[in-house]
Automatic annotation (TrEMBL):
Species in which this protein is naturally found: Calycomorphotria hydatis
Record: active site: D60 (proton acceptor), D233 (nucleophile)
Binding locations of substrate: D60, S61, G62, G63, F64, D114, Q156, G183
Protein name: Queuine tRNA-ribosyltransferase
The family this protein is said to belong to: Belongs to the queuine tRNA-ribosyltransferase family.
Quaternary structure annotation from Swiss-Prot or TrEMBL: Homodimer. Within each dimer, one monomer is responsible for RNA recognition and catalysis, while the other monomer binds to the replacement base PreQ1.
Length: 338
């Protein structure tokens, strides 16, 4: 899912996203609740009309941003009190409040409020976060009223296998229509993240979506899918695109490099997006060097298209029972030996 934090995937029209195969978008509860406000979005017809997207939308609960962006003042089993990163005002978010905001926003998939501790937190802190996440999941489920929204539970537990197992085992009886894995890709080495997926994913129902939050690189996506993950979100395609870095079938390309100045080749001959079918690498470099906004737009669109094609190709490989070979082939093309 491309990330539309404030109701927009930066620099891209919804129609462009559709053209490159995007099916579902993510919007951010924390940011939209602060600006323009959930009540404003509701009055303007909900997220679908607000951002002119007729496909599925997922919103997170705001928990990750509360624990990572805002200055925490107090947290207990009933709510978290924090300072807005915009104007410094004191705000409160409870499990029921997180659900109410997401019901106002009107996404199709919504998330329980969870506590996401730092990656290097002591085990006892992570254990407490797991227990509170379970409690909040129950409170969110009780507060949830809209039948047209699917509420996902979130597994926490840091990089402690027993705590991941504990979190998953506590959430399963709540019978959510989907399950997310949170608290990963927050600074731990990739092998540790993969190890936590090896522990967690087999515990989650195969007939429900399994969502790895905030991930990741093309390598991460392949590794996670082969471990049973179905759904991802990440700012990397558009953020890297805005900063002149493209993902291609042959690996990463830094568009500001001097070697691209007179390069007439397309960015990626295996891609059918506008950046690759209409423009040369030399022109794309010129846009970035000149500070023209078209450069970030084209590379953002290309990176989103690359991610969508990667996932389509991986689905096909799974259907044809050659997922392992697909991994080997892609890693070799990207210069990855493991």
């Amino acid at each position: 899912m491309p990330v539309g934090t404030l109701g927009t995937v930066k620099g891209l029209f919804p129609a462009q996203l559709r053209e490159v195969g995007v099916q579902k978008l993510l919007a951010n509860t924390y940011h939209l609740a602060l600006r323009p406000g959930a009540n404003v979005v509701e009055e303007l017809g909900g997220l679908h009309r607000f951002m002119d997207w007729d496909g599925p939308i997922l919103t997170d609960s705001g928990g990750f941003q509360v624990f990572s962006l805002a200055e925490l003042r107090d947290i207990n089993d009933e709510r978290v009190v924090f300072k807005s990163h915009i104007d410094g005002s004191m705000l409160e978010l409870s499990p029921a409040g997180a659900i109410r905001i997401q019901e106002q926003l009107g996404a199709d998939c919504i998330m329980v409020l969870d506590e996401c501790p730092p990656a290097n937190a002591p085990d006892e802190v992570i254990r407490k976060a797991v227990e509170r996440t379970t409690l909040w999941a129950k409170l969110c489920r009780d507060a949830h009223q809209r039948d047209d929204q699917a509420l996902f539970g979130i597994v926490q537990g840091g990089v402690v296998p027993k705590l991941r197992e504990l979190s998953a085992s506590q959430l399963l009886p709540l019978d959510f229509p989907g399950y997310a894995i949170g608290g990963l890709s927050v600074g731990e080495p990739p092998p540790e993240m993969y190890a936590m997926l090896d522990v967690t994913t087999p515990m989650l129902p195969e007939d429900r979506p399994r969502y790895l939050m905030g991930v990741g690189t093309p390598v991460d996506l392949i590794e996670a899918v082969l471990r049973g993950i179905d759904l991802f979100d990440c700012v990397m395609p558009t953020r890297n695109g805005r900063n002149a870095m493209a993902f291609t079938s042959q690996g990463k390309v830094k568009m500001r490099n001097l070697k691209h100045m007179t390069d007439t080749a397309p960015l990626d001959p295996d891609c059918s997006c506008p950046a690759c079918t209409r423009y040369s690498r030399g022109y794309l470099r010129h846009l970035f060097i000149s500070g023209e906004m078209l450069g970030p737009i084209l590379l953002s669109l290309h990176n989103v298209a690359f991610y969508q094609k990667l996932m389509r190709d991986l689905r096909t490989a799974i259907q044809e029972n050659r997922a392992t070979e697909f991994r080997v082939e892609r890693f070799a093309a990207w210069g990855i030996t493991n």
